Amino acid sequence: MDETPHVTNRMSRPFWTFLVGQTSSAFGTSFTSFALPLLVYRITGSSFLMASTVAVAFLPYMLFGPLAGVLADRLDRKRVMVTADVARAALLLSLPVVASSSTRPAVILAAFAFIETAFEMLHAAASDAVVPTLADPQDILKFNARLSVADSIASVLGPVSAALLISVTSLETLFRIDSATFLISAIAVLTIRVKLTGRKVRSSIPDDSPSRWSETVAGFRFIWRNRLFRSKALMDGSLNFFGANVYTQLIFIVKDHLGLPDSAFGWFEAGAALTGIVTATLAVRLSRRVSFTILILGLPVVQGLMAVTIGSSRIWQLSLVAWSIYSGTLGLSFLIGVELRQRYVPGEMLGRVQAAQRTLTWSTIPLGVLSGGLALNYVAVGPFIAAIGVTICVIAGMFAWASPLRRATALRDALEPLPEDHPTV
């Protein structure tokens, strides 16, 4: 029988177990993050087909995002995560066989990206909603930061290992390693001996969703009724439309713009993860010393400036540093947004709100990267990425000037946080 003991200011055994599972899958995922773009590059050599693969991968957020949130709130979150992990393990294990025997490997890769993202989306909706049941409200950012640090460490070791292995083994082996890590993650989640479903708590933002339809759209309604959540979702969606092109075309920056070998792509991935460790470690300290308004509006400006540097520089060391800072600040922005929702959204609907946020902000990515892929038929990747950076800075400036985000700190402080004595483990 599940139990729900209460802890404060320290990580409980269930949290350690959860962290081990998440870190394992992050390590394996970094292998696929290295192998998949390289595989698409080798097969097609086309920036548009690379963009198309990424676009297809994000379609599940448009099609099934709200449903994933409902499932995460209404089903046993432990079972949801285990099911998603096992499904992704099977998918990755079969990918090399299916892709190698197909006459249209690009179609197989796109289909793989779509299905894998669907299960990843389901897992993310459940796992994001689990953290508030493992931590006190005042410790949520700290616990998220520790998860992020562990994820980043795995994401450093993964690309470095993949870059070393690629010289002695095949890309297919990297996918098999990822498959094994998902099984480890599933086993870890199964051993957590606590209840991971949402808890009903009072909230200053109403949830009146008795019908099935209202239940599905409750996450969107929750976000749209609050000026802070609504404005941040609109800004993030706008930034993702353009900014997603930076990561999508990274392999072309490394190979074509900088003229580096395949293994260098792994070093760029590792550099980004290493910066993620630093920013996640500093997240709690920054949240206490820097205004919330400055953080959510200033970080996109830093990302824009780094994108300009990546696109305009031919010095690979400078591009590596700029890419690392870009990724680190992007991760910090994501971490701050997740903590905001985990701290102020009632536990019984957190899965729906997190899924709605992803749907609103990531649904812009397919059209954005497809537009970018088409544009790259007429312009080199370097100037294109530099122009993206300028656009990101302009968007951040517009929201700082003409949206409620210029008063983000006051809007956040006006929210009613979850009670200090809400049930955790």
Number of strands: 0
Count, helices: 16
Shape: globular
Give the low-pLDDT segments.
Answer: 1-9, 198-209, 420-425
Q: Give the amount of beta strand, in percent.
A: under 5%
Mean pLDDT: 80
CA-atom Rg in angstroms: 21 Å
Overall helicity: over 70%
Main pleated-sheet profile: none
Judged by helices, strands and strand pairing, the structural class is mainly alpha
N- to C-terminal distance:
14 Å
SSE succession: HHHHHHHHHHHHHHHH
Write the layout of secondary structure elements.
Elements: H1 13-44, H2 47-74, H3 77-101, H4 105-134, H5 140-165, H6 171-190, H7 212-224, H8 227-248, H9 250-257, H10 262-289, H11 292-312, H12 316-344, H13 350-362, H14 365-375, H15 381-402, H16 408-414
Structure description:
- There is one protein chain.
- The chain is mainly α and 425 residues long.
- Helix content is 79%, strand content 0%.
- The protein has 16 helices and no strands.
- It has helices at residues 13-44, 47-74, 77-101, 105-134, 140-165, 171-190, 212-224, 227-248, 250-257, 262-289, 292-312, 316-344, 350-362, 365-375, 381-402, 408-414.
- Helix 2 (47-74) runs parallel beside helix 4 and helix 3 runs antiparallel to helix 4.
- The longest helix is centred in the N-terminal third of the chain and has 32 residues, at 13-44.
